[in-house]
Amino acid sequence: GANLFAKTVLKGLLPLIPANHQSLAARAQTLVTAIERGIAKYAIQTLPSGDQGLAYEVDGLGRTRFMDDANVPSLLSLPFLGAIAADDPIYLATKTFILSRQNPYYYQGEALAGIGSEHTPPEYVWPIAVAMEGLVAKSEPVKSAKLATIAATTAGTGQCHEGVHKDDPTQFTRTWFSWANMTYCQLALDYVRDQEKEVAL
C-alpha cells in the first residue's frame, strides 16, 4: 500500500517540477518506474483466497505477508488515495480478501466488523478502517451503514476511538483519536455530497 501511495504522490509531483530541474524529474520518474515494476513483479500474488491480488508486504526474496492493517495507507484505502481504481479486478480481489476472516486483522463481532491493527489488542476494530470501507464504497447504503456503525460504537463519548472491541464498544483504546474523528467526518461529508448530487438530479 505504501509503495503504491508513494508512486501516486511522485507521479502527481512530476508536472510540478520546474523545467530547470530536469535531473530531479528524471530521478523521480526512475523511481516511479521502479516502483511500478516492483509491484508488477512482486506485489501481485495469489492470495490465500486463490485470486490474484496485492500482498501487504513483500521482500523481493519470495517472502510475503497476506493481510491488511487499519492504518492508512493501507490496501483498503488505495482507491481513496488515488493509487488504484476502485473497480480494478486486482483491487476488488484484494478487498474481498482483506475484508474476510482470511485477513488475520479482520474481526467480526456483535458490535462491529472491520480491520484492526498490530498496534492494538486482538479483536479491536479501528473506526478509521470502518470509515475507509465507506469512503471506497460506491453505494450510499454502505456509506450510511458505516457512519451508523461508528456512531453506535463510541461508548457514549461522542468521539471515535483508536480501536473498539468487536463485541463490546465500552472496551476501546484512546478515549478520542483525532485521526479517526477526521476520517468519520470525511465519510459524513462524502455521504452528504452524494445526497446533494442525487437531489440535484
UniProtKB/TrEMBL annotation:
UniProt cross-references to InterPro entries, sorted A to Z: 6-hairpin_glycosidase_sf, 6hp_glycosidase-like_sf, GH125
GO process annotations (BP): carbohydrate metabolic process
Classification via PANTHER family: MEIOTICALLY UP-REGULATED GENE 157 PROTEIN (PTHR31047:SF0)
Protein's recorded name: Glycoside hydrolase family 125 protein
SUPFAM superfamilies: Six-hairpin glycosidases
